[in-house]
């Protein structure tokens, strides 16, 4: 089976519109993905028919929606193949998931002189929380370097591992370049020294199968809005033993067992990490999005996006003066590039007016830009609802850019 | 020309364009007319950081008028800087401080005015007014 592109596109209402009198070409899926109608309808249905606060009401609506929320957790559990439902914590997104671990793990296990390993390819969300932790604890950050293709140098990584290394946090896929990192190997190397690993999955979860047990990662973080789900929902997967050991990050309602003014005891997993009223609408919407892409088929998505990437790489490479940044053999459908003697911002302004949505700038990954000695790139990130014709539209827009600024 | 005449002239120039591409092409043309900053001032001290493009802005008094020079690494931003310099440069600090820059809205650049937009238009206007305030305070000492 392959992808029925017309059918798929009709599932996403937003795609069928014109901007600046031209059909919209949406190539900013790395920033956020569009939502299929089933997700939009589900969210609307909850608010129009089912809404009630979950987990605490004794009434009908509350019980029904609590069940749906816990069913959503189960959908996520099966999707990432976690061993237990309570290893899936709903958060507001990848950023909160990473901050939770940087705080909870950091408070308990990081001491003066300890080391934390991240990589050059990280998004700021997987740099700054660790940097702040290092400042609080007088610990230090070690950074895995990359080669000119944008691939992590794992030999160098092995050399960084030391007795003081307490945790490794790397992304599965680079948001700025699209490189798919060999996280399995990174995890195995760390585990030989009993060092836990957090994987930032914000850019990988929507592009292919993720099996947290097979990877054996200790923590895995991703956002709902990048996998065709609602905004403001995310997931923190953590191995049961870790989540039990770690202190909670945020405190408040829902996450407690008993509170007196002398002492509070915490609720069991996963509720210990879900303080306050959870985003149940987001969680249920996320489950719908996961079911939707499962219906399309992850393998179909993977092979279709690979075809798009190959086509786009070939077409863009043929543009005179265009240089692709990030040329790893293993990439998801993201192409970051620069145009000779043309500022990415100028290019972006014109591409936009041609009806094509791309992202320009440093993509919240400034260290990557520094590594390649550039200020920023133009990034086209493709989803399975994009077409080769849309790649052509991008190329046409680039021709206009070159005419105007060349 | 007065501040109003300068703005009205720009509004008239832009009135013939109904397409964004034409507006951008005109901004590219205008970027060539910008009174460029002396390279010795193209330092971090004179840098206004927008999110995506860099703008350097310098101001000095010429008699009782304030003169601006600027540059940017992005051409459209440079064109916008050229417009602002054309409108404000050569006015007194007091006139600049009180300037109501209605031409921005009239030529359709207001979408670039929100604080999160990346071309630094708002930051440029702010910096120019700050210079004017500083020189105005100095003159009244």
Features:
heterodimer; A: 406 residues; alpha/beta; Aspartate Aminotransferase, domain 1; Aspartate Aminotransferase, domain 2; 2 domains; four-stranded antiparallel beta sheet; 14 helices; 17% strand; B: 141 residues; alpha+beta; Sufe protein. Chain: A; three-stranded antiparallel beta sheet; 14% strand; globular
Q: What do these coordinates show?
A:
The complex is a heterodimer of chains A (406) and B (141). Chain A has 406 residues and is an alpha/beta fold. Chain A folds into 2 domains: 135 residues, Aspartate Aminotransferase, domain 1 (Alpha-Beta Complex); 254 residues, Aspartate Aminotransferase, domain 2 (3-Layer(aba) Sandwich). In chain A, 40% of the residues lie in helices and 17% in strands. Chain A has 14 helices and 17 strands. In chain A, the strands form 5 sheets. In chain A, strands 4-10-9-8-7-5-6 form a 7-stranded mixed β-sheet, sandwiched between helices. Chain A has a 4-stranded antiparallel β-sheet with strand order 13-14-17-16, covered by helices on one side. In chain A, a hairpin with an 8-residue loop joins strand 13 and strand 14. Chain A starts with a helix and ends with a helix. The mean pLDDT of chain A is 96. Chain B has 141 residues and is α+β, with helices and mostly antiparallel strands. In chain B, helix 1 runs antiparallel to helix 3, helix 2 packs across helix 3 and helix 3 packs parallel to helix 6. In chain B, strands 1-2-3 form a 3-stranded antiparallel β-sheet. In chain B, strand 2 and strand 3 form a beta hairpin. In chain B, 48% of the residues lie in helices and 14% in strands. Chain B has one domain: Sufe protein. Chain: A (Alpha-Beta Complex). The chains are: A alpha/beta (406), B alpha+beta (141). At the A-B interface, helix 12 and helix 14 of A face helix 2 and helix 3 of B.
